[in-house]
């Protein structure tokens, strides 16, 4: 078997793994949303300022992707205007949360320089990573755009980041919720009971195969953020330009 065939097999396996993950989320959730059994975010529901802060490595999609997602969110917003929808400038893919956003963030931020050093070392050489956004999935509390990649380069970068954090004794805050292995974009969160759950679900179902575009990551950013990476709070600590070809 030649190299091209092996590469294609690996790419198919990577995409199938992501598809299985997203499909499982969808099958476990869509019936609940249709029935109006969502999980509203208590902070958003109370409309209070989020006090949680974290450090996260992210990438942001280009304007063409943002436009496609914005049009989709407009459809959802017309049915459920009171829910929480991310603005185009807030769209992002999380590469890795160096520590999960928490109200007890001072001890972590006291080590900001060490975190920067870890990220500097991890991102010295990053291969080209292309993400295709196609279809939507959901959890009981969120709506997500599905992101797919053909190689394991993105998860390899995550593993290098984890290794650099461990080497510096900074790994306690990593992967506290779950081990991140996908490239989804969270674009909406529930903060109130659904008024039109069946119509809302119908829009999600129609978008299951919808294309939102693709891009090759050109830069990564290390940011200070709240839980939602909201525009008014998120602060760029350092930006990393990536070569288009590595």
Number of strands: 9
Report how far apart the termini are: 26 Å
Uncertain stretches = none
Distinct helical segment count: 7
Radius of gyration: 18 Å
| Helical content class | 25-40%
Largest sheet: 5 strands, antiparallel
Q: What is the fourth-level CATH superfamily?
A: Cyclic phosphodiesterase
Count of domains: 1
Q: What is the averaged pLDDT score?
A: 93
As laid out across the biggest beta sheet, the strand order is 2-6-5-4-7
Q: The CATH topology is what?
A: Cyclic Phosphodiesterase, Chain: A
General form = globular
The arrangement of helices and strands along the chain is HHEHEEHHEEHEHEEE
Strand content: 15-25%
CATH architecture: Alpha-Beta Complex
Short key terms for the protein model shown above:
5-stranded antiparallel beta sheet; single chain; Cyclic Phosphodiesterase, Chain: A; 9 strands; 246 residues; alpha+beta
Report on the architecture of this protein.
The structure is a single chain. The protein is an alpha+beta fold and 246 residues long. The chain has a single domain, classed as Cyclic Phosphodiesterase, Chain: A (Alpha-Beta Complex), CATH 3.90.1140.10. 38% of the residues lie in helices and 25% in strands. The chain contains 7 helices and 9 strands. The strands form 2 sheets. The chain has a 5-stranded antiparallel beta sheet. The protein has a 4-stranded antiparallel beta sheet with strand order 3-1-8-9, covered by helices on one side. The longest helix is centred in the N-terminal third of the chain and has 32 residues, at 3-34. The radius of gyration is 18 Å and the shape is globular. The model has no long low-confidence stretch (mean pLDDT 93).
